Amino acid sequence: MSTSTLTDYGISEALKQLGINEINNGVCTGTKWFETPGEVLESYSATDGQLIAKIKQGTKDDYEKIIQGAEKAFKEWRMMPAPHRGEVVRQIGDELRKYKEPLGKLVSYEMGKIYQEGLGEVQEMIDICDFAVGLSRQLYGLTMHSERPKHRMYEQYHPLGIVGVISAFNFPVAVWSWNAMLAMVCGDVVLWKPSSKTPLCAIATHNIIAKVLKQNNVPEGVCSLIVASSKHVGDNFLADTRVPLISATGSTRVGKRVGAIVGERLGRSLLELGGNNAIIISEHADLDMALRAVLFGAVGTAGQRCTSTRRLIIHESVYENFKQKLVGAYQHIRIGHPLDSKTLVGPLIDKSAVADFNTAIERVKGEGGTILCGGENLNGDGYESGCYVVPAIAEVKKNLPIVCHETFCSTALHHEIQNHR
Amino acid sequence: MSTSTLTDYGISEALKQLGINEINNGVCTGTKWFETPGEVLESYSATDGQLIAKIKQGTKDDYEKIIQGAEKAFKEWRMMPAPHRGEVVRQIGDELRKYKEPLGKLVSYEMGKIYQEGLGEVQEMIDICDFAVGLSRQLYGLTMHSERPKHRMYEQYHPLGIVGVISAFNFPVAVWSWNAMLAMVCGDVVLWKPSSKTPLCAIATHNIIAKVLKQNNVPEGVCSLIVASSKHVGDNFLADTRVPLISATGSTRVGKRVGAIVGERLGRSLLELGGNNAIIISEHADLDMALRAVLFGAVGTAGQRCTSTRRLIIHESVYENFKQKLVGAYQHIRIGHPLDSKTLVGPLIDKSAVADFNTAIERVKGEGGTILCGGENLNGDGYESGCYVVPAIAEVKKNLPIVCHETFCSTALHHEIQNHR
Amino acid sequence: MSTSTLTDYGISEALKQLGINEINNGVCTGTKWFETPGEVLESYSATDGQLIAKIKQGTKDDYEKIIQGAEKAFKEWRMMPAPHRGEVVRQIGDELRKYKEPLGKLVSYEMGKIYQEGLGEVQEMIDICDFAVGLSRQLYGLTMHSERPKHRMYEQYHPLGIVGVISAFNFPVAVWSWNAMLAMVCGDVVLWKPSSKTPLCAIATHNIIAKVLKQNNVPEGVCSLIVASSKHVGDNFLADTRVPLISATGSTRVGKRVGAIVGERLGRSLLELGGNNAIIISEHADLDMALRAVLFGAVGTAGQRCTSTRRLIIHESVYENFKQKLVGAYQHIRIGHPLDSKTLVGPLIDKSAVADFNTAIERVKGEGGTILCGGENLNGDGYESGCYVVPAIAEVKKNLPIVCHETFCSTALHHEIQNHR
Amino acid sequence: MSTSTLTDYGISEALKQLGINEINNGVCTGTKWFETPGEVLESYSATDGQLIAKIKQGTKDDYEKIIQGAEKAFKEWRMMPAPHRGEVVRQIGDELRKYKEPLGKLVSYEMGKIYQEGLGEVQEMIDICDFAVGLSRQLYGLTMHSERPKHRMYEQYHPLGIVGVISAFNFPVAVWSWNAMLAMVCGDVVLWKPSSKTPLCAIATHNIIAKVLKQNNVPEGVCSLIVASSKHVGDNFLADTRVPLISATGSTRVGKRVGAIVGERLGRSLLELGGNNAIIISEHADLDMALRAVLFGAVGTAGQRCTSTRRLIIHESVYENFKQKLVGAYQHIRIGHPLDSKTLVGPLIDKSAVADFNTAIERVKGEGGTILCGGENLNGDGYESGCYVVPAIAEVKKNLPIVCHETFCSTALHHEIQNHR
Questions:
Q1: Which segment of A203-207, A312-316, B288-292 scores lowest on mean pLDDT?
Q2: Which tens digit of pLDDT belongs to each residue from A15-51?
Q3: D102 in any annotated domain
């Protein structure tokens, strides 16, 4: 680990605050970390290619222990009144407020999104805590009148049990919090399997909440974490009938696999998958506002959001004008280290993502599209990690195959709609 | 009663179908009508000035009997499961479907609104029945988690008791149904005091529902009616602690009196009062669509709706243009017998309303406004009742006193807004 | 077809009223029936073993046509305002009221449940119509305040598209109506694949609603029916991405298959599967009320409900007493033709179900349980169909394997709980 | 001010922490306190009869200024997104957590309830903050389907404006917070008129929230306070059309006055008034649990809660037994200084309340009831304030007039119900 690099942007200080060591255990039941014999995972920053830290991953045995602990914890946790569970969540929100800067920095450094987005992600964790605290006194069901005399009916919501959370690299902490904080006030317990590309964000998050769990005597097993390879915690996790709900974020391909395996055992799944969003620019559009919206939507998080703008459909009467504005704006996008406050676009998550990006560019060309700008890989000073690319704009016919599917990186594809209405 | 007039437009046939006799009792507990020694009320049609029928009004003694019957009926009715109450309401809806034409005709003839509006009003009765039937299986309360271990909380809605419904002449049947049908599915019982200007509509309505009440053995007192002078059923009704909810439609002046008297006894009041609605015509407006909207809003029901359009606020850039269009359109408004299918505007409710209209016209002039068109009283053939006037458009400065208060008849007042933003 | 049998209980008259012919088409888009070259299905009554009628089943081609028609109908239907769709459903409810007796009789005759249960099932259809009509004006979403200044958020619910309804023999019409009536007010269109054991109930239902669909010009394809073998409309139906929601009723085994196939394509499934319900009789129980509840729960619908009582768990202090009461009561259960008003228990659905029943009895014995009463197959006069059995009570240890799984016929299994608290 | 007394129980330290001076301004717009020429109010502790501090009360002019400021603040505050308003409320909750002990102590000392109840009241303030923060992202309205093609409807909730809060002495801070925190997240502004018997609690509360208001640049006028005599801020407040909602806590007599005056101007009122609650002890009751419940309900807050238990209705079969238990328990009630941790019952609010208590005791006797225990006034050491009485139990016939109305102090009245069912 190159100290000189880590001190840049205060990263080593942040790691210290977050309790990240050179080697970290990856399995935890809340406040207790398991000694595990599992394989070591190394987390490198897409930002500068440096090794950030190592993680001892969980095994099948660890998974079994974690699940059994969660089942036990559930029996206790579900009996705690919801407003008391809400109070724990409130304190988690306060603790996250304290660690907003270092955690936001780690998100930025491990995943590659710019610092403001890293902070924004932690803010979303805080916001869901506030929301969940309010919910803890509002877990409403309905009462109903019955058709039988002197009878009445009512719903009484009961928690499900263990909620399995599988999160993706692009939102390494927020998605967990959305699931976990709501699950916790409802009386469910949570087992988190984070992306192997961003394990340290998960470990840091667990370090933050551990204080609150301890202080409130929350049973071990209410909030568990397992960093593990899919070989050990994969389909077996999805098929586990002890996990009534699987909440998974990832590609559509993965989502379908989750849907099938969980569906077969009559489990519940919550899926947050990909997208291929288009913005329609009509002849009435305020082009300056549209430009800002497209820019933010297309290149934010280096195009690695499920909600990223991947297509533009532009009315012919404003087509040329808007195209030029957009190509012009793309020239001024600052690409670089995400912790540099002037940067707008950081690196892709890894070299494999760069390869996918290159393939997409080639496919566009092969299918008859034109790259209007961007598409290059960046090398040299500041780009040593090999994960930086220049966002591209492609001009294509609307019926190209590549336009019909998600390309999970910063390619904005334009085409034209004629005779609108 | 001039038979020749009544046969016009099939009115005498409608009266027969609706069970309206020359003299009718005005007090009823559902299916049973009281012999009452009360004063006789005569209902004349604003349409042609003819006496339609007479009503024996209720006395204070009748009121007392009705209330006691309602209290007794409530004890039984509230124990009937809501879906069974809903079944009664469903049958009322079906019965109203059968009598839609004659009842719509009577509404038109006794009150003066055009036939299509009369039918529309009965359709609103039918619609609320459908809505209420659905509600009868959805009278939802909430269940909530408690902060005490092993406790839970839930809401169980109970009916209030007697709901007093005071309705106005301009919607002689629909407003009752909105209140009564919802009250009935909730397990409340209803006492209706209709406007003395439209008592026959109320009696006809009760004749229609009586069959359903009888067939379902609904206790006498669940749906009561009292046609009475305010001397006998007025403030004493409002102040009656046996009537937990008063729902009143009428002028703002009356509403304030209801609010005060019911408020003082910690009762509940539901008030549907006047309005002084304006339509704003901006420089971006589609003037043709705006013209239709203004016309419908201003002259519909001869301007006697709480939602009637009484003011227009027009941007200076389209002011002259729109003014001319509107004045032009007013020339083609067909004023006449509301049962004539070519009529757009019928009579005002009575001669007193005509006097108010004339006063308003004079006030407009006195305060410096200009009558652009209309404002005359109509006489002669077809206008023998003396209740017909020509809808007026006045051009005024925005700060005229008369513009700031409701004028409950067909006067559309225009003024100009300059330098809008 | 033996006329003499059919005239018993007025069945042939009912079939005529319901439009059931000797041979019927099994594929319909609402009012239009397809001529199909598909295999003929014969529907025999479990009641008396008679052939009721024949059905020409749909093929893969028919399925394809039906789906394309449904897609087309959806485009129109979803644009009709929800209250108008509700009006269609209201009329369906009224039409079902008219045909309640013949349809209830056919349900009883084709499926074997007693006439009162057949009528009750049609009443449930009527009730859901009333509920759905109310919902048609209440398809509520939420509006929410945004964290962005001058912005607001709201939900706008849109219909899904084609809802596939797969129903089971034990509730041959009600389950369809629960799904179809709600789907229809929401703007969805419905494709119904009924159980091959009760196809005539489905055809009769479609004959009833056809009048309403026609009268309201409901597009062909809003309510479709396909009687078909699973070979032709089976997994291909489940996997069809043009059917966003599959609602299936059936065994848990089938449910898991639906869950897997629909889950894999990220579809939605609504599953109503089996159960293995127990009633706990505590030492405080009112034994007479418990007896009635157990009897109704265990032998109603010949134990062929997902909610049938299949197990009793009885406190030791009342065990012997309650056991004797129950065995005594079982002696008086009247088993016979379900249209005979004295009958309490009719036949099982077919001979295959009788074989399953016999197997279960043998398993109970083999696993060490004791049959306290019942378990015999009935033959001879009135039992010619070979589908009648005597409900059995078995006394077993709580941990017998057979107790842990659903036996979908009338076997009530008792065992004892000791040292309760 | 006797320092020696105030230092007892840490009161002078608490006053210092809460910013209470010898003389305090009583009018505030959030962070700014008005210099007012109004009459001085002196707040004495019921506990020890000592003067705690003085307050300069607001005049009619102050009221006018406050209202105008609130109107102005409303225009700004309502435009702040609800979640941002929620963030202010969250910080108020955190600030109340910091001051829970001193504020709880002041509540106890100024009003007379025991310290645990004082703390409990502040906890309720904190809880409502958490609840309101959650609500700030959930201010839900409904969206609905329209009966018009291509139209939809939705509710958009808008804040009302100024919410007037009139609080009573018995809950000097919690009731304000329930109203104010919900009003604030909704975008309303609040004007608080506290009871003249507990003005210092209100001033201390405003000192606590001032820091948060300042830090968040909340406009002056969002949270206003006016300590004033009813001569200056009384009916004029109720009648003020600039205050669309009046939330008042107090006696039923006062509530009726609010209802009438606010009702007359078509305003809204939220009333939390008295009660005359009974506990029914049936023959099946767990008498030990009932005893604890009655004791807590009857003597808590010295019987000065709207929810205090004032009547017991006991089944004859357990009547004597329970009566003896209760009279026995009353012997052990520790009456004394509310800040002494051994005390269960503190003083009544003032000598006038003692006089009312004595009158009630005499009325009981005069009407034929028997005082079973208690009823004495306490004097001497520790009781110098003259506000301490001994809770009484009266045995009465059920139809005594005094039983039918609320007696707002600690008198538990027993009587017997015979032939239950």
A1: A312-316
A2: 999 999 999 999 999 999 988 989 999 999 999 999 9
A3: yes
C409 band by pLDDT with thresholds 50, 70 and 90: low
- Structural domain range at position A97: 4-138+156-272
Please write the tens of the pLDDT for every residue from C115-129.
Answer: 999 999 999 999 999
Considering the domain boundaries, does residue B410 fall inside one?
Answer: yes
Alpha carbon of D29: minimum distance to chain C alpha carbons (Å): 25
Q: How many domains does chain A have?
A: 2
Indicate whether D90 and D167 sit together in one domain: yes
* Domain's final residue, options B217, B249, B272: B272
- Sheet with D27-28, edge to edge strand ranges: D27-28, D223-226, D189-193, D162-166, D245-249, D268-272
> Which residues does chain D have within 8 Å of residue B252's beta carbon, measured at their own beta carbons?
266
Find, among B376, B350, B346, the residue nearest to B361 by Cα.
B376
- A407 shares a domain with A300: yes
Interface test with B, best of D127, D148, D266, D271 (most B CBs within 10 A): D266
Report the residue of A264, A269, A272 to disrupt the C interface, i.e. the one with the largest count of C CBs within 10 Å: A264
Task: Give the pLDDT mean for D355-377.
Answer: 92
Same domain, residue pair C262 and C294? no
pLDDT band at C288; cut points 50, 70, 90: very high
Chain B residues contacting D via beta carbons under 8 Å: 252, 255-266, 269, 271, 273
- The reported pTM is 0.94
**Is D144 close to C137, i.e. CB distance below 8 A?**
yes
Q: Please state, in angstroms and rounded to a whole number, the distance separating the CA atoms of residues B201 and B181.
A: 17
pLDDT band at residue D6 using 50, 70 and 90 as cut-offs: very low
Mean local confidence (pLDDT), D199-212: 98
Instruction: Report the alpha-carbon distance of residue A296 to residue A292 in Å, rounded.
Output: 6
My answer on whether C214 and C305 are in the same domain is: no
Residues of B in contact with A154 (CB under 8 A): 141, 143, 154
Q: Are residues B286 and B299 in the same domain?
A: yes
Provide the shortest C-alpha distance from residue A273 to chain C (in Å): 10
Domain match, D116 and D161 both: yes
Residue of B nearest to C138 (CA): B131
On the question of pLDDT at B290 being above 70, the answer is yes
Predicted ipTM?
0.92
Please list the active-site residues of A. Answer: 272, 306
Beta-bridge partner residues of A279: A312
Query: Both B205 and B293 in a single domain?
Result: no
Nearest-angstrom CA–CA distance, A220 and C14: 65
Q: Which of D255, D264, D273 sits opposite B260 (nearest CB)?
A: D264
From B80, B152, B155, residue closest to A156, measured CB to CB: B152
To the nearest whole Å, the CA of B264 is away from the closest chain D CA by: 4
Domain with residue B319: its CATH number is 3.40.309.10
Q: Up-side HSE of residue D106: CA atoms within 13 Å toward CB?
A: 28
DSSP string, D254-279: HHHHHHHHHHHTT-EEEEE----EEE
| Angle (nearest 5°) at CA C281 between C275 and C283 | 160
Domain assignment present for residue A146? The answer is no
**Residue B147 included in any domain:** no
DSSP letter string over C138-205? ---EEEEE-SSTT-EEE------SEEEEE--TTSTTHHHHHHHHHHHHHT-EEEEE--TTSHHHHHHH
At A103-162, the pLDDT tens digits run 999 999 999 999 999 999 999 999 999 999 999 999 999 999 999 999 999 999 999 999
CATH (domain of B232): 3.40.605.10
Residues B106 and B70 in one domain: yes
Answer with the one of A222, A248, A272 that is the final residue of a domain.
A272
Question: D45: closest CA among D274, D338, D302?
Answer: D338
Q: Which chain C residues are Cβ-neighbours of A273 within 8 angstroms?
A: 266
State chain A's mean pLDDT as an integer. 93
